Amino acid sequence: MTVSDSKNGDDSDRLEKLRAAIDGIDEQIVSLLAKRQREVKRVTEIKKARNLPVYHPSREEDLISSRRSQGASAGLEPCFVEELYRLILRQSRVEQTQRIGSKAVLPGGVILIVGGRGEMGRYFESRFAEAGYQVRILDKSDWHDARRLCAGIHAALISVPIDQTNPIIAQLAPYLPKGAVLADITSIKASPLSVMLKAHEGPVIGLHPLFGPTTSSLDKQIVVATPGRHLAECQWLLDQFTAWGSVVLTADAREHDEMMDIVQALRHFASFAFGRFLYRKKINLERTLDFTSPIYRLELGMVGRLFAQDPSLYCEIIFASKQRRDLLKQYIQSLQDSLDMLQANDKERFLEEFGKIAEWFGPFSDQAMRETTFIIDRLIERF
Amino acid sequence: MTVSDSKNGDDSDRLEKLRAAIDGIDEQIVSLLAKRQREVKRVTEIKKARNLPVYHPSREEDLISSRRSQGASAGLEPCFVEELYRLILRQSRVEQTQRIGSKAVLPGGVILIVGGRGEMGRYFESRFAEAGYQVRILDKSDWHDARRLCAGIHAALISVPIDQTNPIIAQLAPYLPKGAVLADITSIKASPLSVMLKAHEGPVIGLHPLFGPTTSSLDKQIVVATPGRHLAECQWLLDQFTAWGSVVLTADAREHDEMMDIVQALRHFASFAFGRFLYRKKINLERTLDFTSPIYRLELGMVGRLFAQDPSLYCEIIFASKQRRDLLKQYIQSLQDSLDMLQANDKERFLEEFGKIAEWFGPFSDQAMRETTFIIDRLIERF
């Protein structure tokens, strides 16, 4: 055995010992996390009894700020400590919301979900049932029983495909108790809202939950509410979403629809068209991933994600209205304008256009840069 | 004072006490993290002395698996524990890499960075200097001194805009020592590689670091290497990237360029065209963000990110070659095909196409769904 071998052997022993020490520290950390969770459970019981909100921004910021300074004095990277605590606090909010959310804002409330056997219908069935509401389902085959199903309900939630929303509202309205809240969760709002207002005399509100049935927690998820009539009588339903941790954004139905033309239809159509081009060119996706830095991986991922989901959902969103289809046509036509630029190898024009657009994007692009950089770091960390 | 007030008062006291207890636990957790970091530092010293890699996948997986089971028995969500530990391990790798990376693979090596006052040039100047290399810069105004700057160098790294790469290689070559490695870091590879092989007799390798100068750590970042000549004599340079934590992917220059047509040019062009349309329609970006679920926020963020960056970089990428511009033209033309579909409100055709594309995307879309869902959860947690 040479001196060097013996030194290597010593190093291996030392490495083993250090790793055992690290394992011991990690065990203590996980025990403390479990202990922390038990204390949070006690906090939650008080919050639940006193109807206090789960999310307490100033308490969270104070807590993070204290941990950052403690970490910094102990030689830890403060941003690392902050990220860790954002994760811990998020988990804590999710657990608190699950516990508190199981309390109904309208105790004894009866909810009818129309289209309750669809994916979103089943999702809300579970949420309302967990919260202690009595939930009834009216699906395609239940119309013969509509009178009984509607008797004594406090709210009817229309959860059917866009193109069936208006006829279903008209079909349901005659059975509704006058005081019941009529609400739909379709992703366009102006047209169903006007149909609901015509069909039902009582409280009316349009809702658009900006999340899908695979969302594990409603924490911080946005629900757009477009008021129709008797907003005060709809308030308990909005409060229920807030109790689940959602953020309720009240907006005009027409403004909502214009925004969705962009953030849903245009974005999804662009992803669809991109995926379609990759398919037509028969690009070797697997191999492109080898050459993919996190940012491209994420961008391809956003496209791939679309094609893992329900085609009819995207079809409905893209073809929802003539206004929407016209916007998409304008988008395609605007791409045409770039053909000349590419043909002529006109870099100057590209730079000039880029400059104008960048100026117009303004502070949003800096924010986007910060947010996506954060996200890319998370991607690297995970995959 | 009523009974209820007094009860509320008791609750407030209890809440305060519970919060103090949680603060105490958090203080212990942060102390343990600092202690953990000190132990890791000791591990790093051994790894550095023995040239052991920072990333030890099986050790990390074992560690995570133990913490998951411990967490689960203690009533914690195992996925939460795993996320937390992925973050801790990533931070640990970054710190280890910083410490180990400051060791040169070729001790006493002299590196010439041509274009060293550009952003990427300065980035690599810092990395190599930190690692203990002697770094020299040859920029526009230094050509009169080229002979002296090239004397005794072990590698020349060409870090200039794409359209200047080939002429600069030709201009530099006569000054290079025969044994020096000639490498470029341009984002296209076939053409510079052939020019390098013609201009220089010694070791030649094309490099494409798939990251920008704002990257805080090279951890897990990909560097594509396209071998030219005398690969064994270029190995130390590749090993240096590996020592910094990068993943070196060896590929054929032509294949690299084809892949980049897609993952860089097409993707960036699509984002550019999308941002340009938002600009032309003068969409109220601020307001769309209010209506934005994390997924749309992320998609808009990817577009906004582009416009926060250097226009000339994107201009170069998009206009890099005729082949590339032709691909982009095909992309624009393929969008035209959708006009009819939208005009005719042809949902059936949309569903049929969607189905074919989804089938072709196959397992990639499931992977994309998993990855982007993970990312979206991180976005919610953070913003």
Structure description:
- The structure is a homodimer of 383-residue chains.
- With 383 residues, the first copy, chain A, is of the alpha/beta class.
- Helices cover 66% and strands 9% of the residues of chain A.
- Chain A folds into three domains: 3-96, Chorismate Mutase Domain, subunit A; 110-251, Rossmann fold; 256-345.
- Chain A is built from 15 helices and seven strands.
- The two termini of chain A are 41 Å apart.
- The model of chain A has no long low-confidence stretch (mean pLDDT 90).
- At the A-B interface, helix 1, helix 2, helix 3, helix 9 and helix 10 of A face helix 1, helix 2, helix 3, helix 9 and helix 10 of B.
Secondary structure topology:
The structure is a homodimer of 383-residue chains.
Chain A: H1 3-49, H2 57-73, H3 78-101, E1 110-114, H4 119-130, E2 134-138, H5 146-150, E3 155-158, H6 162-172, E4 181-184, H7 190-199, E5 204-209, E6 222-229, H8 231-243, E7 247-250, H9 253-280, H10 285-290, H11 294-306, H12 311-318, H13 322-343, H14 347-361, H15 363-382
Parallel strand pairs in A: 1-2, 1-3, 3-4, 4-5, 6-7
Antiparallel strand pairs in A: 5-6
